[in-house]
Amino acid sequence: MFAQLFRSTTLRATPVASVKASLPQVRSMTTVDRRRFEPATFTIRNGPVFHGKSFGANTNISGEAVFTTSLVGYPESLTDPSYRGQILVFTQPLIGNYGVPSAEKDTNGLLKYFESPNLQAAGVVVADVAEQYSHWTAVESLGEWCAREGVPAISGVDTRAIVTFLREQGSSLARITVGEEYDADEDEAFIDPEQINLVRQVSTKAPFHVSAANPECHVALIDCGVKENILR
Known about the structure:
The chain is an alpha/beta fold. Residues 5-9 and 30-35 have low confidence and may be disordered. 24% of the residues lie in helices and 22% in strands. It has helices at residues 2-8, 16-22, 31-35, 74-78, 142-149, 159-169, 186-189, 198-202, 228-231, and strands at 27-28, 39-44, 49-54, 61-68, 86-90, 94-95, 100-101, 123-125, 128-129, 132-133, 138-140, 153-155, 172-178. The radius of gyration is 22 Å and the shape is globular. The longest helix is centred in the last third of the chain and has 11 residues, at 159-169. The protein has one domain (24-231): Glucose Oxidase, domain 1 (3-Layer(bba) Sandwich).
């Protein structure tokens, strides 16, 4: 019986080209991306200095250094309005391996993959950034995204040492400098985001309406930097 079943079964081989075509495309960083990899420095006020490579915007920035332990979801974290004015340190060793998705919206007009329309973090710090990325929703690399949004990013630093310092000392003012060391004085070098009206920067500029599954449900919301998933 088993022999007859085996004889009646036809095995078909799938061409390698067809298999490759069905897989998500693996993209490398562009030449422009690679040119951004110049020396960069992450400096914590009254703390250690870390040297690495820039992979975002070629600009200097200062803000409050905080860290996140999220294993995935860096597009959501970086667009979270609560991180406005903060330099976000990722504890996950490798960041950027699935790229950055599009700004596609769902049927209710809410962003499917982001928490807000813009990259909110002032800067990005990672141990290692993926030079290749692959995901069916990806449209650009993490470095391309940061550069387009004007956000500096640094890789190749000891994020474990940074997190240890921040865990023991608490959130601290810090800065990312690209190229030559920032030569401004102490007050100019470290800008405290607490002295800035961040709510004005992240809140809505006009009233808006979001459709609900239950038309009889009416909820009023005061937007001080609401995330898309809270609205959803």
